[in-house]
Amino acid sequence: MSSGTLKDRINQVYSEPVGSPAVDFILEYKLKRSAASDKPVAKDIYAQIQFGNFDNNLVPRFPVAATSITGTAAYLNASGDLETVNDSDIAGYRFSIVPNGGQRIISTVELGFSVRVDTGGTDEAYTIDDLAVYEVGTVQDSEPPSAPTGLTVAGQTDTSVSLSWTAATDNQAVTAYDVYRDGTLAATASGTSTTADVVGLSPSTTYHFAVKAKDGAGNASNPSNEATATTDPSPGGLPAPFGDRDIGSVGISGSASYDEDTGTYSVTGSGADIWGTEDAFHYAYRPWTGYGQIVAHVDSVENAAEWTKAGIMIRASMDKQSPYAFAALTPGHGTVFQDRLQAGGASTLTTGSTTTAPYWLRLVRDQTGISAYDSFDGTNWTLLKRETINLPDTIYVGLAVTSHTNTRQATAAFDQVSVGEAPPIESTYAPFPGTIETRKAWLWNKVKTMQEESGPLNITEYVAQILDGQNVAANLQKLDAMYQSYDYEQYKTVAKMYAYLMVGDQFGSTMMDHVRQYFASYAYAELPQTENLRMSNYTAGYLVGQYFPDLADLNGNSGATLKSMNKANIEAMIDAGVHKGWAEYESPEYTFMTYLCLNAIYQYSDEQDLRQEAKMAMDVMWFEWANDWIDGYPISSESRAKGDSVAATDPTWRGQNHTALEWAYFGSHRAQQTVGESDSSSPSLYRPNLEYLGFVLYGGMSYQPPEMAIRIGQNTAKDYESRKTNQQNSSGRTMNIYRQAYVKPTWGLATEVQYNRVDNWLEDLPVVLRWHSDAPNPLFRLSTDQGTAPIGNYDQPESHRIMQDGKAAVGVFKLENSPDYDYINAMFPDTGSIVAKEEQGGWVFSDAGPMYFAFKFVKPATWYHQSDTDPSNKVKTTAQLHPTAQLLYSYNILRSQADKNGWVLETADASEYASLAAFESAVLANTSLDASHIDETNPRLIYHSLSGDTMDITYDSAAGAYNNTHKIDNVPIDYSSFKIFDTPWLQQDRNSDIFTATEGDEQLVYNFADWTIAEHEPGTDPDPGTNPDPEPLFADDFTGGLGHWDLFGSTAWQTSGTGTAAELSGATNLTYPQRAVVKTSSLPYGSQDYSLEYGAKGDRFRTMFRYSSSTSYYFLEFKNASTVELWKYPNSSTAVQAGTTVNIADALPGFSLADWHNYKLQVQGDTFALSVDGTPAATFTDGDLTAGGIGFALKSVGPDVAMHVRHLTVNPLS
Questions:
Q1: Is the pLDDT at 686 greater than 60, yes or no?
Q2: Could you tell me which residues come within 8 angstroms of residue 308 by beta carbon, excluding any fewer than 6 positions away?
Q3: 1024 part of a folded domain
Q4: What is the model's pLDDT at position 454?
Q5: The CATH number of the domain where 357 resides is what?
Q6: Would you say residue 1026 has pLDDT above 90?
């Protein structure tokens, strides 16, 4: 029932203030058993009540749980007469509704009965009559009061109307009067009152009123006569339908006015605060129904106190204790977001940007809740917080001011105020299907609008905004504050190195002191740590040695020494990663941290050999990600995947991690809706400050994934089985992890089992079943309880042993030493991603849409339900009780406790069976499970699967070596034959130097002995000695603007054109150099020998090389139609010519600088050779300057000078 007296009464109780007495209800009906089966399933013969909009905290899902009725006197009665069943028979039929202040109410009441017999049983039936749910202690009263009479308007203001009427009568007593405004309930008065004030009205508006009387039984009278009133005009000239009033106890009456010429609202208010359980402020408001948004530019705020608040508000009512959402600007604390979730409840506050007026604020109410944003320009919005608040359909939106000092007033000015429809949810989704560039642009915008929880945290957000010229001064202040705090996680140090290298050219001298002090606060040396932390420490140390050569770390190492020792550590980790497989494979949290470091090495190292190693390591990562990707979902077991939020990764939501990067390049079967912790309303996500995706997304980064990997990732018809091996754990010690996957175009099953295990983490996902769905979280997985960790968070490979055979997987469990950790959890998402679920014969059968799956525990199991709003210890009572431990999604959890246990998972493509019922029948008829050995010393399970294979698994130790305990048709699985990669596209033997990637008629061979990449024809033996063209150090086709270039304030340079016609052009008549230099983040100033090639035309232009500062570089000056000279700034502000003038026309008759030519300058040691259009033209020698970047410059000697450049490439010298 979605409507009716019962639902209304229950919601009335839920809406009463917190602490009000609970109200009991009783389920009652008459029952007779009309057909008696010979095989009734007693537990499935029951009645139950289910509430819609439950959270199992404030509102239970099942107020009356499914309790068998087979033991009641009515059921057992053989007379055939109907007999009553109520709480006297089943105590659970009496249930309590506990008031929650309206924080959550129900949407439906569902009353259901169930009957079931076992296979082959005769019919079972029963009859129900006189079904009722009634309130305990109520007097049955169906007579309504008489209608009130004489309703009149006693007075009105601009925002209120006073009413009076003649009392109604009732056979019991009138308990309340409801006042309706234009048919909508607007106020309620007590049963003894005959007057009411209706507030929150709009000025100059005509309203129609009526009153109804109510009694204690909920009976309502007919309406009174109608009274009509027109409110007074707004004294401040507010535009319709805005009105204004004081709310709460204010010391000085407030006011609001509007200047039509400037579009400015001026709001003046006193009041102690908007905070705590009640508010005091002045409010300029208007009503709004449904979803909507308010945007305002806060132009000024009078500083009556540091916590004076002026902002925009969404409010349930004009009551001082009303629920609300409030985005405000303060004189002393920047922007803040506040809310009160229930009437009279406490308020909470989230800090935003550290800023002062003028600033922009925005509140949006849509399907996701209420979202608050701030902005420096009204275009680029930063999320402050998203919150779910139970508000009526019609709310009040407007401008609120509290002085925070009740004896003083404060005035705030607002302009560009707009109230309107909320943007469609779909408008915030990523472009679909989009392109790589549009998807990356969407992610880049997400980076720039991450949520700030408290204080400066989101380093990527600040850097991204600075790179785009947004809020630069404020963001530099935030970065400066971050450099003054110590970080215990080494990847944060790498993030701060990125920030320095990307925007450090804008740091002042004091900030640079903080930067140097920060990087000098660490010891960059070999660590006994996890993979990502080791790589982070070594990468940071290496780059400190390169970019701060005079800076010593805590061990006293600096410069070349620090750089060299950390290079050795980096190379050792890369070597292990490409030969043994990365330890933190497919970890949504940690894989990206290692990738972030490799990208930093490739981007910023001045050593080509190390850059090549980093590139090849990243390439292999991309090939594995591409292999595992099925149009939006990774099909793989996962290492170091802790927490519900890292398990969920799909088009509804995924973290700002490597899967988001994969999505940008590979795409998905539906639009990506949200990404990153800022986009999730789950309280378990509190760490957007650890999201560094933006650093590698930036357009100035040089690394690009292999085109073949992109094609493999974009393949939407994958249909294969694969095997992989990883041979190291996160601390770098030897172990063996055998991984398998069965993959179809729209779903896949992946598992893993570990051997030779030492000191490894418990954060793996050993069983992963994902499928395509339009609903969130299409993922079935298994976990085992560990300590106080949240349910579903961890696994224990030592206790939990798993094997896979194609579409089927089995597992055995043996608890060794931890008596409280003998639970296995089967996590069934309760998000709509499972279309239907049925149970039979101990199996749970699920229809997931594109596929079916069946799961069965050997030992008894019990169903539980836990949602993202439930306390983290609801099901697993030993879990830590903290918001960050809550689930990201709702789950139905099948939980089995036994020291020795087992399970079976069977899957099938939906195309294989006509229906879920057909799949059920096939499993029940054609499979068998022998669990007779499950309680032996080493539990054993034998399963005959749908494929016809017999799977036989016996428990063995994860710390030991594999000893043929996993068998298929009595033949042991040969795990020793598993390769590092053995998939349709990827091949690599264990510890092999050769990795091959094959797609169609193309094959790439990666040789990790000499660090080369070669192309081969598939089916031929690769030649490890083939060395392809090296990666360029830098390239720019000028289609992406000037992001790679430092202009040093010059306005002489610009880019224009598209495609092959895109160019860099400059023109000036200034008599001092107008420089355009490749940023050191794109081409390090430490670069020594290289060649630069470009197309150019012009006259009197300069090509700069070995550029390290404005007083240290060489340049070739092309002038006088055909001549060239070598000049240098030898660490001096005065240029000196080196060598003689050369006429290029001597080598190329008819040459003219005004025509397009291809130039190549080879810079090697002290020799600089220039060729034009492939013809040697000049050679110069000089040994003063040994390293630096490249660029172009113009300097006039009177007339205008100009230059045009196309297709610039800087290559290493072989």
A1: no
A2: 301, 302, 330, 331, 401, 402, 403, 404, 405, 410
A3: no
A4: 58
A5: 2.60.120.200
A6: no
State the pLDDT confidence band at 1025, using cuts at 50, 70 and 90.
Answer: very low
Confidence band of 681 (pLDDT split at 50, 70, 90) = low
Supply the pLDDT for residue 585: 94
Residues 844 and 885 in one domain: yes
Q: Distances in Å between the alpha carbon of 436 and those of 676, 826, 934, 1031?
A: 18, 37, 51, 22
Q: Which two tokens stand for residue 491?
A: 């990847």
User: Per-residue pLDDT tens for 91-140?
Assistant: 999 999 999 888 889 988 988 888 888 777 888 899 999 899 998 875 56
| Residue ending a domain, choose from 973, 995, 1025 | 973
Cβ neighbours of residue 736 closer than 8 Å, sequence gap 6 or more = 725, 726, 727, 754, 755, 756, 962, 975
Q: Report the alpha-carbon distance of residue 540 to residue 530 in Å, rounded.
A: 16
Strand partners, 943: 929, 951
Residues 54 and 123 in one domain: yes
- The residues that bridge with 256 in the sheet, in sequence order, are 267
Backbone angles phi, psi at 561, to 5 degrees: -65, -50
**Co-location of 846 and 740 in the same domain:** yes
The domain tally of the chain equals: 6
Give the torsion through C-alpha atoms of 244, 250, 253, 254, to 10 deg. -40
Q: How far apart are CA 224 and CA 784, in angstroms?
A: 64
| Pair of tokens at residue 865 | 């339900």
Confidence band of 682 (pLDDT split at 50, 70, 90):
low
Read off the tokens for 59: 């509102």
Which domain covers residue 112, as residue numbers? Answer: 5-135
Mean pLDDT over all residues of the chain? 92
Give the bridge partners for 1210, in sequence order.
Answer: 1034, 1092
Q: Is residue 497 part of a domain?
A: yes
Q: Which whole-number Å values give the CA distances from 893 to 89, 375, 730, 809, 920, in the listed order?
A: 29, 42, 30, 19, 21
**Together in a domain, 750 and 707:** no
Question: 235, 263 in Cβ contact below 8 A?
Answer: no
| Strand-pair category, 653-654 with 674-675 | parallel
Indicate the pLDDT class of residue 820, thresholds 50, 70 and 90: low
- According to DSSP, the β-strands at 808-814 and 823-829 are unpaired
**What's the one-letter identity of residue 475?**
N
Q: How many Å apart are CA 1038 and CA 857, to the nearest integer? A: 61
* pLDDT band per the 50, 70, 90 thresholds, residue 879: confident
Residue 998, pLDDT above cutoff 80 = yes
Q: Give the pLDDT confidence of 625-671 residue by residue, as tens digits.
A: 999 999 999 999 999 887 777 788 999 999 889 999 999 999 999 99
Based on the domain organization, do 829 and 962 belong to the same domain? yes
Same structural domain for residues 666 and 542? yes
Helix 490-503 crosses helix 591-604 at what angle (to 10 degrees)?
Answer: 40
CA torsion angle 965 968 970 971 (round to 10): -80
Question: Does residue 959 carry a pLDDT above 50?
Answer: yes
Q: What confidence score (pLDDT) does residue 442 get?
A: 95
Same domain, 120 and 208: no
Q: Is residue 336 part of a domain?
A: yes
Q: Is residue 803 part of a domain?
A: yes
Single out the residue in 714, 736, 766 at which a domain terminates.
Answer: 714
pTM score, whole prediction: 0.70
* Nearest C-alpha neighbor of 725 from the set 736, 711, 709: 736
Provide the percentage of residues in the chain whose pLDDT is more than 70: 97
* Vertex 562 angle, CA 556 and 567, to 5°: 155
Are residue 218 and residue 258 in the same domain, yes or no? no
* Alpha-carbon distances of 923 from 132, 780, 842, 895, 918, rounded to whole Å: 41, 19, 12, 22, 9
The CATH number of residue 28's host domain is 2.60.120
Token pair listed for 878: 């030993």
Helices and strands of the chain, counted as H and E runs? 16, 72
